[in-house]
């Protein structure tokens, strides 16, 4: 298909690569034009100097940008340039409000919008193994799903516009609790005089097992956090969660508490540390 991709960051750059490798006709846009030029030099296609130029004639326009305001701007620019009946797929983690607004805007222009936040991190993007939770009409999902399958291991339509973002919020709530539990467990193990690796080997095949434990136990025990999903990004996501909870009345005591713990990590200089750095606030002198 004729596909455009906006936002060539640590996630978007490899995601767009998978699309090129799948044989789609690609156009890319990035606010830092050198990234777009580097992508085209490596993978072919063309560079759009603007989002609208990249989206010209696109059947599917995919974006992976920073926040609600970025989505509103890029979609507003790209939408009129797309092919009639085209679909916008937004992999940015945003509010459900902006997803619904963009779906309404797209429908008025004879196009469709799918909110499609992802889970799996940079490694998932690089390896084409992302989990993607989608919100939109069944028709828009059916058109976009074969395209985004290029970098997904699992894709599911969760409901109408905004449902993908709401599902991503559930994902972040669950991760926040798991990482805090892991941080406290590791901290306790050290204070109790236990060897962290031995503890991991003892408990990681039972009910306490998690992706976070398998992939972060060792680095947490070593105090290494210079990789992965940044604390600043997690706080942005948890802010979206807490805003939505304010609207729907959900009681999120643990999530609010962990968000405060991440604020402490930021104060320690850990704005770009991996989210597993929650343990750092427990281990500080």
- Provide the gyration radius in Å: 20 Å
CATH topology of the largest domain: Rossmann fold
Shape: globular
Query: Would you report the number of β strands?
Result: 9
Order of helices and strands: EHEHEHEHEHEEHEHEHHHHHH
Number of domains: 2
Helix share of residues? 40-55%
- CATH H-level homologous superfamily name of the largest domain: NAD(P)-binding Rossmann-like Domain
Number of helices: 13
N-end to C-end Cα span = 56 Å
What is the level-2 CATH architecture name of the largest domain?
Answer: 3-Layer(aba) Sandwich
For the largest beta-sheet, the strand count, sense and barrel status come to: 6 strands, parallel
Main-sheet strand order equals 3-2-1-4-5-6
| Rounded average pLDDT | 98
- Strand % is 5-15%
Overview features:
285 residues; alpha/beta; Rossmann fold; six-stranded parallel beta sheet; three-stranded mixed beta sheet; 13 helices; 55% helix; 14% strand
Describe, in plain words, how this protein is organized in 3D.
- α8 packs across α10 (211-222) and α8 crosses α12 (253-267).
- The protein has 13 helices and nine strands.
- The chain folds into two domains: 2-159, Rossmann fold; 166-283, Orthogonal Bundle (N-(1-d-carboxylethyl)-l-norvaline Dehydrogenase, domain 2).
- The mean pLDDT is 98.
- The chain is α/β, with parallel strands linked by helices.
- β8, α7 (138-148) and β9 form a beta-alpha-beta unit.
């Amino acid at each position: 298909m004729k596909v455009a991709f906006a936002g060539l960051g640590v996630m978007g750059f490899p995601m767009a690569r998978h699309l090129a490798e799948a044989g789609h006709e690609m156009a890319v846009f990035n606010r830092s034009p050198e990234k777009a030029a580097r992508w085209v030099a490596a993978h072919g296609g063309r560079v759009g100097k603007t989002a609208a130029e990249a989206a010209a004639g696109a059947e599917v326009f995919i974006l992976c940008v920073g926040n609600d305001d970025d989505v509103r701007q890029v979609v507003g620019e790209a939408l009129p340039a797309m092919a009639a009946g085209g679909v916008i797929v937004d992999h940015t983690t945003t509010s459900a409000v902006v997803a619904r607004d963009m779906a309404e805007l797209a429908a008025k222009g004879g196009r469709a919008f799918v909110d499609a936040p992802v889970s799996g991190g940079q490694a998932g993007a690089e390896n084409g193994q992302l989990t993607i939770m989608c919100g939109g009409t069944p028709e828009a999902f059916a058109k976009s799903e074969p395209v985004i399958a290029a970098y997904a291991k699992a894709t599911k339509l969760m409901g109408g516009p905004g449902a993908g973002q709401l599902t991503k919020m559930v994902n972040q709530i669950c991760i926040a609790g798991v990482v805090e539990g892991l941080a406290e467990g590791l901290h306790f193990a050290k204070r109790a005089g236990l060897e962290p690796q031995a503890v991991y080997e003892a408990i990681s095949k039972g009910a306490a097992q998690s992706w976070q434990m398998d992939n972060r136990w060792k680095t947490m025990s070593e105090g290494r956090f210079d990789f992965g999903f940044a604390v600043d990004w997690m706080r942005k996501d948890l802010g979206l969660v807490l805003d939505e909870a304010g609207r729907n009345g959900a009681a999120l005591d643990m999530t609010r508490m962990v968000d405060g713990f991440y604020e402490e990590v930021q104060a320690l200089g850990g704005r770009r540390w991996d989210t597993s750095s929650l343990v750092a606030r427990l281990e500080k002198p």
